[in-house]
Write a structure and sequence with these properties.
mainly alpha, 7% strand, three-stranded antiparallel beta sheet, single chain
Length: 107
């Protein structure tokens, strides 16, 4: 319980973020006609979804859901996994004689 395994807040937060991103994708796909994205407000067409999304945000003031990052330092499971992988990489660096990786992992 002290490691946060019973805390499902992280899972709920991730689910909400995924649902928001899925909603963004469905909005973009609804405006796609064959291989082109067509703006319903000004009828401009775009080949790439990134440029189309930027057009909607700048020219028509659309707000897409953005995912906010959780504070990784407050998640003990995340910290444990990060430190475990760092230890494994450092041990491997010593075995392989990789001085640059040893120094990089030390900082």
């Amino acid at each position: 319980e002290s490691l946060g395994f019973c805390d499902f807040g992280t899972i709920h937060h991730l689910r909400e973020n995924l649902q928001a991103l899925d909603q963004n994708d469905s909005q973009m796909e609804a405006m796609k006609n064959e291989d082109l994205y067509e703006c319903p407000l000004c009828a401009k067409t775009y080949y790439k979804s990134g440029w189309f999304k930027k057009h909607l945000e700048k020219k028509h003031c659309w707000k897409f859901c953005s995912v906010e990052n959780m504070d990784a330092d407050s998640n003990p499971v995340h910290c444990f996994l990060l430190m475990s992988l760092l230890l494994r990489d450092t041990c491997n660096a010593y075995q392989m004689g990789d001085g640059e990786r040893i120094v990089r992992n030390a900082y």
